[in-house]
Amino acid sequence: MGYRLLMINMGSTSTKLGVYEDTNFVWQETLSHPREVISQYLKFMDQYDYRMSAILDVLKEKGEELSTFAAFVSRGGTVQPVPGGTYRITEKMLEDSQSGKFGDHPCNIGGQIAYDLGEKYGKPAFTVDPPVCNEMWEEATYSGLPEIQRIASFQQLNHRAIAKKYCSEQGVNYDEQNLIVAHMGGGVSVAAHCQGKIRDVNNALAGDGPFALERSGGLPVGSLINLCYSNQYTQEEMLRRVNGRGGMVAYIGLVDGREIGKRIDAGDKEAEMATRAMAYQIAKEIGALSAAMKGQVDGIILTAGLAYWTYLVDLLKERIGFLAPVYVYPGENEIESLAFGVLRVLNGEEQEMNYDQEAAKEDHLGL
Ligand SMILES: Nc1ncnc2c1ncn2[C@@H]1O[C@H](COP(=O)(O)OP(=O)(O)O)[C@@H](O)[C@H]1O
Ligand SMILES: CCCC(=O)OP(=O)(O)O
Question: Which domain of life is it from (predicted)?
């Protein structure tokens, strides 16, 4: 028997689970978490017990015996900027991901769960292409204040997987292409992939870039500072407001693209205007990156859950179609990318990355 792997992919609105045996897909399941449940928790890590028991219930239903897994694999977490690759989850990695310095996201719960299951069953826990990468152009790391550095904290795993899938389908080499990839899920990130490196991207977790289903994106700074000091919100509540309770949900109380689409079809003008505004901001971000790339854009790729939504995709195409050909890759390839990344290491085809060493080289802890 080959390597049986359990993959855990925690998104802001869902937990996706998958099992592979070697490169063979066994099953995948998506648990959509009701907004009423998720919004009870102020801190993401407070969802640990809720998400763990949801995972254990599914595994029980599927008749999975946890001791049969060769490794537990999770997307995430929000660690120090390090090169891409397959990393063993270490205590240092968990500590950094839960420090909040590099972004806060439910995938940090996934890393902790994978690690805890690994400890319990005596198996390693891994992650692949963590969300924080260190390939930004130097100019792109400037924020405008020396004490604030821009970092790339985003859906790196799916960005790379979809960009490489596109390249393989087009018969071109990822390392020779200049692409703009817009990942549009619970959060939105728009990145410049230039010859195999991600050179600029909005921080999808920290009030940067376009607004998304449940994130505020970039805000007018003066007004934001005033709101922070208005005594309306605690620091924790403000952080959750920009990442978790901002964007579409703050405007119209909805985070499900399908539901928003139905409201628009039923004539809801507020839902329509908020969607048009989100599309406007995503298009503007794509335009900004095309200037950063000096107009040398081979293709624009729209991906993740919202790329299924033709209404949104059409709004985007109307504004960005003149820049470069637009390709739509709905959904994401994260479970498979996690499995294949770990298999390359277990089969000895690729060297396992050492997070503690890479993080020490980068040393972004002073951020
Ligand atoms: N056919 C569709 N039309 C509109 N929105 C969709 C469709 N399919 C999925 N979505 C939306 O995509 C979002 C989830 O995207 P996903 O990439 O899975 O995000 P996350 O990993 O952050 O949960 C949800 O809001 C969901 O409603
Ligand atoms: C840490 C991953 C970045 C992210 O925002 O992912 P989701 O959009 O899946 O929530």
Answer: Bacteria
User: Do 233 and 245 belong to one domain?
Assistant: yes
Q: What percent of the chain has pLDDT over 90?
A: 86
Shared domain check, 283 and 304? yes
Q: Is the CB of 130 under 6 A from ligand 2?
A: no
SS3 (DSSP) at 158: helix
Asked whether residue 205 carries a pLDDT value surpassing 70, the answer given is: yes
Q: Are residues 47 and 162 in the same domain?
A: no
> 311-337: per-residue pLDDT in tens?
999 999 999 999 999 999 999 899 999
How confident is the model over 155-186, as pLDDT tens digits? 999 999 999 999 999 999 999 999 999 999 98
**What DSSP character marks residue 306?**
G
Q: Which CATH number fits the domain that encloses residue 96?
A: 3.30.420.40
pLDDT band of residue 61 (cuts 50, 70, 90) is very high
What's the number of domains the chain is made of?
Answer: 2
pTM: 0.91
Ligand nearest to the CA of 44: 2
Say if residue 116 is in the same domain as residue 201.
no
Residues 342 and 284 in one domain: no
Residue 19 located in a structural domain: yes
Question: Does 190 share its domain with 248?
Answer: yes
Ligand 1 neighbour 255 (Cβ under 6 A): yes
**Ligand 1, atom 13: closest residue by C-alpha:** 305
Q: How far is the CA of 1 from the centre of ligand 2 (A)?
A: 34
Establish whether residue 102 lines the binding site of ligand 1, counting it when its CB lies within 6 angstroms of any ligand atom. no
Q: Are residues 49 and 8 in the same domain?
A: yes
Residue 30 domain boundaries: 4-135+334-362
Q: How far is the CA of 310 from the centre of ligand 1 (A)?
A: 12
Going from the Cα of 350 to the center of ligand 1, the distance in angstroms, rounded, reads 33
Q: Domain check: are 236 and 94 in the same one?
A: no
Q: Is residue 244 in a domain? A: yes
